[in-house]
Structure prediction request, 206 residues.
Amino acid sequence: MGLIHIDLFTTLDGVAQAPGGPDEDTDDSFAFGGWQAPLFDDVVGAQIAEGMEGMDALLLGRRTYDIFASYWPHQSGFIADLFNRIPKYVASRLDPDLEWAGSTLLGPDVVTAIRELRGRHENIHVIGSLDLVQTLFSEKLFDRLNLWVYPILLGRGKKVFADGVVPSNLKLIEPVIASPKGAVMQRYELLEGTPGTGDMTEVVEG
Prediction:
């Protein structure tokens, strides 16, 4: 069965809205679009490229799809070639025009459709797509969570864990990597079960 990877860029206070550019997502008058750009460096770029190895499908929300579809078909290079070649699946309540080659609109039962994708692909990546990510969190419908955490605080904006998160166990599956500009890369695997509890006084005294 294939793996679903969630790839997100977030600030220290959990804001993941519009990291890529000023006009990416201006909902609620968000004024910090493109906050990731000043903190991007070679280490971040290398980690992004490494994380895409083996990717054989993209799963996107409509807004992220529109952004990608307006940009990547007109670019070249490793990422552009990969994105333009592999299948793209779009989760949307509307009926958008999907002009980017290889794009498919998922049916109204998005959760069932995504589960079926696992039987067709080995490594499905969800990039951005915060509304869709909330559904994946609430359904525990992901296998890997890849977080690039940047050393800034914005105080407002759409959050990674906005709603729908259920108690879950995660495991750090490789050493954390820090970039020269302070971005921290963390890769987690979703585990079964729910978080345990205990008594810290017993831990300290023991």
In short: The first helix runs from residue 42 to 51. The longest strand covers residues 3-11. The mean pLDDT is 94.
